Amino acid sequence: MSESLVFITGATGYIGTHLIGDVLKAGHRVRVAVRSQEKFQSIKELYPSAADKIGFAVVPDMSQPSAYQDALKDVNYVFHLAGAMVDKGTELERDFVDPAVNGSLSILESAKREPSIRKVSIVSSFLSLMPMDGVMQNPFHIKANTGKKFPVDFKIAFPEGLPGQLLKYQTGKIVGHQAYRDWIKKENPKFTVVSVHPSQVFGPSLVQKSASELSGVNFLMWMTLQSDGPPMTPYLMVDVRDVSLALARIIDADVPSGTELPITGPLYTWKQYASFIKSKYRTLAIKFAPQEEPTMIMDRDITDKYLKVDWTPMEDTISAFVDQQIALS
Q1: Nearest Cα to 293, choosing from 271, 315, 274, 311?
Q2: SS (H, E, C) 110-127
Q3: How far is Cα 224 from Cα 24, in angstroms, rounded to an integer?
Q4: Terminus-to-terminus CA distance in the chain, angstroms?
Q5: What pLDDT is stored for residue 137 in this prediction?
Q6: Where are the coiled-coil regions (predicted)?
Q7: What would the mean pLDDT of 135-142 be, rounded to a whole number?
Q8: Confidence of residue 15 (pLDDT cuts 50, 70, 90)
Q9: What is the dotted CATH code of the domain comprising 5-205+236-265+296-311?
């Protein structure tokens, strides 16, 4: 396939930095959305030999309707990764719902005006494919492409701490995904639009430079090892490198528009996680001793059909993750 121009939002983040590399390996050029030109410097440092293949567009506020008005000129493929973080907000609508809804609709509306666009991939979450109480129903079977609408209540009393943050984040993901589906039905765009739904993403990071910068699911996985309490979330994980590769493969895959693509790794449990680390890293002070428990599962058949990823064994993901944290400690 001839060289194409691929636009990536959230490119300086955990998944985005990996995706740049996989898109470049596939022979394409990249244009990244950054909030300032200074932010682009970190990407150039990651891929110094591909300087002539990577450009940027400054997008100060990605939720504005005209945010991508000029950024998508001559672009062929779009990956929209930018969005709210679980631990980076407090207000439900301002910090979680509005970014999910406005960010996706803004890039879709801009793509509609660019004749060069062939495909747009909206990266959501496994949480948008399950009801608000789904995480509490472990084990829970997550299914995609059912057409189900999950109700949300903006006025409920959200719990304090991480549980409340997670529910607010899920609210934004559910509402954002429904807005995206409504937009496709209404606009029937000429380009293909798919949504991607990773489970909890962890593994080696290209952006973490010190132990203090540990964040997201990686933070949860590391801190859980230091605790003697129960795990705070079901074990439904996927290697960040697999997520990146799966996204890059969407470029050439003949995926029908409107398809939901769930992405998750091999089935595993918290007990297996603890046992593997204790046996391989005997010098680590591991307090975590979970009991065997049912594992939340998510159907991945449609993703395997179109993207054909050889999913990384969970032991390899854990090793790459732990090795990095030891090196940075």
Answers
A1: 271
A2: HHHCCCCCCEEEEECCHH
A3: 35
A4: 43
A5: 80
A6: none
A7: 83
A8: very high
A9: 3.40.50.720
